[in-house]
């Protein structure tokens, strides 16, 4: 086998081969250890939840927003608003079949919204059921008996699975009030437990939108049941003040100088003090502003007298309400007409132009809230709604509010 090689040469050759093999194995081991020692990309675990108002597809001109306008790469979760509850059957149904579904020549927003996952496979897409316009009484009736709850849950799962949603966001506003009943608190807890069991069998997520105000929370929500059954909570921590107060005020200050007035920090601490884990709390941030009409253009600070709601936004067309993209557009069109101030305590901006006074959040105040979320180990932030962020990029950045949240929380 080895010509002209004696016994001792064979021993030496074997020793050398063994040593080479050992060196190769040792080198491989060191490479493996080095790879394990290399820091892995950090997963912050933070959520950026983007609510989409399906009715934005009906807006005219620059205000029109359809599912494809949403950038799914800067959201971890996207929520379609809203599906409805049929009061007669206690079943979950599309709120606007022509807008939501493809059948009958409809626009098919459900399926188009879910297809956003093709651009971000990690995106979780949920369907919100309820909302302010739904009221509370029909949910109270549905939850009051086992048959109603069963029909609600079965129909919800059927709709979610048919359109490939990842779960449901429950937006009953609010148990125990707005036409609800005293038994709603217990019935809501029972409903959540039954939903959790059924949703787990279908591998579906379950979240809910909950109030910012303590007495509404106390009337309608069993905190233990909420914590036990929900994946996370979308806290409606905005619209603290508006034209309904008859005075100008910051709509969602992170901190407020007057301890008697509720602020976002107070809401988050309230939930934590009631036993909700901080990482379940997703802080709500409005991408819209509250508008006011001043009584006197010379009295234009916080707490100034007003005559009522401010004029409607050009595209959103709702008095007292204006989208951030509309604010940016107006300030850019007539910069000399606008005075922009910032509250030093909360970093929240407000702006006025003669009699029109607006409270809103911008990139600076949103960054302040995102930093607060990180510092207090909250679960993330949600934008209500993404379709009124500056999706045209008039400010120089497309979706500046959502992007600020994503960059700060997820990175």
Automatic annotation (TrEMBL):
Stretch forming the signal peptide: 1-37
EC number: 3.2.1.14
Coiled coil: none
Limits of the GH18 domain: 46-411
Catalyzed reaction equations: Random endo-hydrolysis of N-acetyl-beta-D-glucosaminide (1->4)-beta-linkages in chitin and chitodextrins
Molecular function via GO: chitin binding; endochitinase activity
Keyword tags: Carbohydrate metabolism, Chitin degradation, Chitin-binding, Disulfide bond, Glycosidase, Hydrolase, Polysaccharide degradation, Signal
Gene Ontology biological process: chitin catabolic process; polysaccharide catabolic process
Gene Ontology cellular component list: extracellular region
UniProt family annotation: Belongs to the glycosyl hydrolase 18 family. Chitinase class II subfamily.
Identification of the protein by name: chitinase
Species classification: Eukaryota, Metazoa, Ecdysozoa, Arthropoda, Hexapoda
